Amino acid sequence: MALKSLLLRPPGATMTPQPPVLLLFLLLVSTQPCSFALDFLFNSFNSTNPGVDLIQDARVDSSVIRLTNDSNQYSLGRAFYPTRINMRSSPSQNGTASSTLSSFSTSFVFSILPQIASSPGFGLCFVLSNWTNPPGALASQYFGLFTNATVPVQAPLLAVEFDTGQNPEFNDPNRNHIGIDLNNIESAMTEDAGYYNSSGGFVPVSIGNGQNIHAWIDFDGVDLVINVTVAPVGIPRPSLPTLTFKDPVIANYVSADMFVGFSASKTQWVEAQRILAWSFSDRGVAKDINVTNLPVFSLPSSSSSLSGGAIAGIVIGCVAFLILFGFGFYWFWRQNKLKDEEEDDIEDWELEYWPHRFSYEELTQATNGFSNDQLLGSGGFGKVYKGTLPSNKTEIAVKCVNHDSKQGLREFMAEISSIGRLQHKNLVQLRGWCRKSNELLLVYDYMPNGSLDRYIFTSSRNRSNKLLNWQQRRQILADVAEGLNYLHNGWDQVVVHRDIKSSNILLDSDMRGRLGDFGLAKLYSHNEVPSTTRVVGTLGYLAPELATMAVATSASDVYSFGVVILEVACGRRPIEMGKEEEDDRLLIDVVRDFYAKGKVVEAADERIKGEYGAEEMEMVLKLGLACCHPDPQRRPSMREVVALFVGEDLEVAPAEFLGALAAGGDAIGAGGVVAQT
Ligand SMILES: *[C@@H]1O[C@H](CO)[C@@H](O)[C@H](O)[C@H]1NC(C)=O
Ligand SMILES: *[C@@H]1O[C@H](CO)[C@@H](O)[C@H](O)[C@H]1NC(C)=O
Ligand SMILES: *[C@@H]1O[C@H](CO)[C@@H](O)[C@H](O)[C@H]1NC(C)=O
Ligand SMILES: *[C@@H]1O[C@H](CO)[C@@H](O)[C@H](O)[C@H]1NC(C)=O
Ligand SMILES: *[C@@H]1O[C@H](CO)[C@@H](O)[C@H](O)[C@H]1NC(C)=O
Ligand SMILES: *[C@@H]1O[C@H](CO)[C@@H](O)[C@H](O)[C@H]1NC(C)=O
Ligand SMILES: *[C@@H]1O[C@H](CO)[C@@H](O)[C@H](O)[C@H]1NC(C)=O
Ligand SMILES: *[C@@H]1O[C@H](CO)[C@@H](O)[C@H](O)[C@H]1NC(C)=O
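^ thats the input. predicted complex w/ 2-acetamido-2-deoxy-beta-D-glucopyranose below
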């Protein structure tokens, strides 16, 4: 055990002056993890001799590490210190792993610069990992470290994320936060990016605008604490950390020897993630980085207002010039090319949404020149064509939307893009767009099974489609509820769909429901002069308050969804046309009548009799009526609706919800549209 006592460092002792012979001896003799102190400082990186292992797309570009490659659609890059660091210094006497981990301190300077400020951000991670290629890591998202599986797996991987994007499905608070990730993209803890100043006030810091950010991480292996501090370069190290994570669970994510470094990834949007300098020590405080002459990065538009060192100025100047030149050239070329083929100008605003743009030529080719054979339908907003992208044979649906003003199109694009990564399994994915004159072509994923209305009503048009059984119908309602809940609650801003109806619900290849056309209705309401605002939506699905207020809200979406629930459960259209106009009957009134008589289940679709439990059907119909409550305040939220659908059993609805239903019973049974005076 003499060796072991040599290997165990007394606290505070320094190892550097070890005689080389002893070091060599220890290296040769010891097969156990060695505990040589690691202490390094890179104030810049040398491209011929970077000093770190660059993995996949990471590279050194004029003295800084660039983690991803802009020209690849999917890119991931990692930079690791070449040797592992020792995290568990001594196995304990009885063979089990020692409970004491090593401590370390590190600091680094990074810059995250998106090409388009509003594009979804990606960020970067400082990482401790047992592997340089963590198994299951996606090349596109999640920092290039994690899988998309939401179930955390206990494995030695611990990351500190500097996240400039928001994944609401993983509870990200915003687009500018730091977090502790324990082998899971869903952070164990997050804090807004910023620092505490000398008087203890929190100063928010934007980490995703390209400015150089200084970060400090202290890992206390004895008490199992991770402190993270961030501040813009130039601010002295704040004394209070931004984030303190203290949890014994940390030990489960640390192996005996770990690689230490950085990782980042991206999809089609360009975001330059740079590591400018890095200092690390596992025997005390990491050496100070000299931040005086670090390069500065920014987008070309703001470069003129920057002042800095002479070198920084030159670097920015050159970069800006090159980018402007390239951009200008591209713009010029594009404009000429488009003038030739489309005789149409590209508006400045369109450049912002460029990454998703399809060329008109490509879409013409994909749809056989918009031939009638490819026509899938023509709805309220325009014609929809089926197409196949020539490049990768993907099937798409192209919706042609006509609009009288470019302004309306622009606002619509802003809405779609500000929502950023609007992606959910229950939404029809928008793949991109193309504008030709006042026509906007929206490219969606193709849904092979068409829309829900073709499977629940019998009419001459859909005789060929088989009816959906109750199980499928319930599943589709649950799917759509989830999709709509995501629009309402998945983002900082509430996205109101405005036109929910069964013909806007599409069925994918597995007959699962997906909501289409979100936001489109808004395009049309924008078009109107405010004083004459037209109510947008579809008759039969419109909430009564829209007649007086004309402002769509999430509650009016809930109303429309309630109508869809009733349609699907009853197999009847929202308005049954009679011979005379007076014979028209609203489905809601029909169901309300049954409800008032205390036998609401009799409203259910006869053709699926026997497939459902009476209690379950009763719950679904009551839920539909509750969603259609005349008072928007008393409708349930989509969150509550989802909880009911996704919950164990509809029959065992939460007591408070049933209570609310009962309380609203009078109004449910009151029938008709209640006009407020
Ligand atoms: C980079 O490393 C190479 C090889 O080690 C060396 O010759 C060169 O001087 C270094 N460059 C800088 C800028 O330090
Ligand atoms: C980025 O990737 C492309 C294609 O994969 C490659 O040709 C190019 O050299 C890469 N760029 C850099 C700067 O590494
Ligand atoms: C042996 O392991 C147990 C539990 O892992 C620990 O509590 C105990 O202190 C260890 N004994 C020695 C002598 O290290
Ligand atoms: C860490 O990696 C090493 C080498 O790849 C492997 O032998 C070991 O099992 C890994 N440790 C854990 C806890 O997975
Ligand atoms: C994870 O990604 C893989 C491949 O991209 C995909 O097949 C799988 O469905 C995804 N899983 C989840 C839960 O999103
Ligand atoms: C610290 O921050 C708070 C709030 O951000 C601010 O009001 C205060 O003036 C700051 N104090 C100093 C010393 O900068
Ligand atoms: C972490 O921060 C707390 C204050 O929040 C401090 O008490 C503690 O000493 C710090 N630990 C390390 C390892 O820096
Ligand atoms: C930092 O670097 C600059 C030159 O790049 C030098 O003048 C200055 O003395 C350095 N500061 C420290 C504290 O080493």
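The two ends are 90 Å apart (CA to CA).
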